[in-house]
What we know:
By secondary structure, the chain is α/β, with parallel strands linked by helices.
Amino acid sequence: MSHPNPKSTYITRRSASPDSSSSDISDSELLEGLEDAEDGFDMVGYRERRLEAIKSELQVNRDMRESDHGRYTEIMNEKEVVQTTAKEPLAVVHFYHRDFKRCEIMHRHLETLAPRHFRTRFIKVFVENAPWLVEKLGIKVLPCVICFIGGYAKDRIIGFEDLGNSDAFGTEVLEWRLIQAGAIEKPNASGPSSILGFPSAKSSGSRIRDGDVDSDMDD
């Protein structure tokens, strides 16, 4: 036979004994305790810290907007592509050819995603303008979308194989694939990564330099 929980019994007895108010905390005592806690809270200091955080965030957004964040832009010079992917925490680079229908389809989806994911830089590069990069990155099939995280090429989408292998895939399919790569944030993400926009990358990759491609697997 099981024995009753002493705590449960105690609560039951108190609930059943309304006259035992001498051991209960009254509403007025609770309010007084809350007021005492508020008196010890530095509301002015908290408000100032929040204002400074908001100002800092606004400045970061202004700087990003000036560097074409929120837009899908083309870079004509391959040295600028190297510099941009090296300095941007998150970048999605589409290597394309003007004669390829599927590259045009990829353009449309990336143009839609760029304003949604302000923290990530979205870039398109015409392969004939970047022969050195095409060779160094081993690009052989177009469209080719490479995800750069912290300056390293961490993942790539080759053709439409990861997108259902159909020209009719939805933008949300590409969006989810980029989220899996860590190149964009999941909508309504919480935590430090959503505030700063710099999620950590778990996969290995390569970093482009002017004269070579460095692997982060190397010591």
